[in-house]
Amino acid sequence: MKKKKTFEKLLKERLERITKAIELKEPDRVPLFDPGGHLIAKYSGITSYEFYFNYDKARSAIVKWLKDFPFDSSFSSVIGAEGFVFSVAFSNYPDIAPAIRFLTGPMHDVLGDKYTRWPGRELSEDIGSLQFIGGEYMKPEEYKYLIENPIDFINEKILPRACLNLEKPGSQKTNATLLRLGIEAIKFLGFLQSTAMDLSNIGIPSLNVTFAYAPLDFIGDFLRHPTGVMLDLRRHPDDVKAVTEALVEPIIKVALALKPAGANIAFIPLHLNEMLSPKMHDEFYWPTLKKVIVELYNQGMKSLVFFEGDYTPFINTIKELPKGWGIAWFEKTDIRKAKEILGGHTCILGGIPISLLISGTPNKIKDYVKKLLEDIKPGGGVILSSNIALGLTKEVPLENIKTLINTVKRYGKY
To answer: What is the percent of the chain with per-residue pLDDT over 90, rounded to a whole number?
Structure first.
């Protein structure tokens, strides 16, 4: 009779498995990441509103989920919306900046931000997902001010325009809002730390993650809206280039803020890349994103980049990065093609279509995953997950998750 492994041994095995894959080696088997998502709330019998606004319930739900569905690691603790603009605003204060990388539900209540919509607030309580809608909070003629001093401009102009409770800098209301934001940031950090500890106690390692951003995405997401920045690329190209260059330093400052605490992977979600032609990508998008990734690598930090959309037209640019620079998480890019091009250079993440998990039968999932592993696991440097971050929607049948885990355990061995 096999002796049951202790959680301590499982924790060590999973961490070593992930580390070897990132280092482009062959571990004992291919690691499997939990992408997170709203299925976790449903499984624990709580609403989306409770998942986003009650840290204790969210923590219990995440731990229950990963205890019953033991992935090798998880992104499920990400229960917030894009909030990198706040981190950049406080990038000169490394003790503050990382704590407000993500906007949580309670932070949304404090700030009254216009960037996001939430279950139980602007949306119904159990709609399933928050919404990041962005917005236009800067006019094209203001690029010159952003270029001169991006941090001051964001604090003095952008945040007051984007947040109802920060509309009058220096007012009692604004000062009280900033104090309340600090209190909520402390609560959120406590949630992250306690959740990570709870998961380690059941043998699930949490990645030591910090955060960065593509400079052009920052403009599109938080300042000009994607539509605005796409027009600016043609009408104000020099201004756009100058701003992306000006944003590199504060973005790197935010990413390095957690390095003293042991963070060694910077998560970078890409958004505008699929909207760009190869020429536009190579001229406006890639140069400053590359600078961020390379500088972090030089500082001893790898990057985890979520290449949203189909990155096939630009995939060869990734080979411009140093070998072993980090992890490429692909959404629509053919992961077999990605492994063929980037194998031995870049760790590949993804490969499981969320549509298959939603509508496929267990047999279809087993057949798909088995064949995928046969094709991409040789040589190592591969981690499986769904092709969408936070992609486990409430429609995914639980038996499909069980099948996915069991298939990787059986056929992912080296």
So the answer is: 97
Nearest to 253 by CA among 192, 211, 219, 207: 211
**Non-local CB neighbours of 78 within 8 Å, separated by 6+ positions:** 36, 102, 389, 390
Between CA 135 and CA 141, with CA 137 as vertex, the angle to 5 degrees is: 130
Looking at CATH, the fold of the domain delimited by 7-411 is given as: TIM Barrel (3.20.20)
Burial class, 293, CB count within 10 angstroms (exposed 0-12 / middle 13-18 / buried 19+): buried
Distance (Å) of CA 248 to CA 73, 215, 242, 276, 347: 30, 7, 10, 20, 24
Q: Is 264 exposed, middle or buried (0-12, 13-18, 19+ CB in 10 A)?
A: middle
Amino acid at 364: K
Q: Which two tokens stand for residue 126?
A: 């159990």
- Report the chain's terminal Cα–Cα distance, integer Å: 24
CA dist., res. 107 & res. 101, Å (int): 11
Q: Which pLDDT score is estimated for 270?
A: 97
Q: Convert the pLDDT of each residue in 51-108 to its tens digit.
A: 999 999 999 999 999 999 999 999 999 899 999 999 999 999 999 999 999 999 999 9
Helix (H) or strand (E) holding 386: strand 382-386
Residue type, 116: T
**pLDDT band at residue 5, thresholds of 50, 70 and 90?**
confident
- Where are the domains positioned within the chain? 7-411
CA distances from 370 to 17, 143, 253 (A): 19, 51, 42
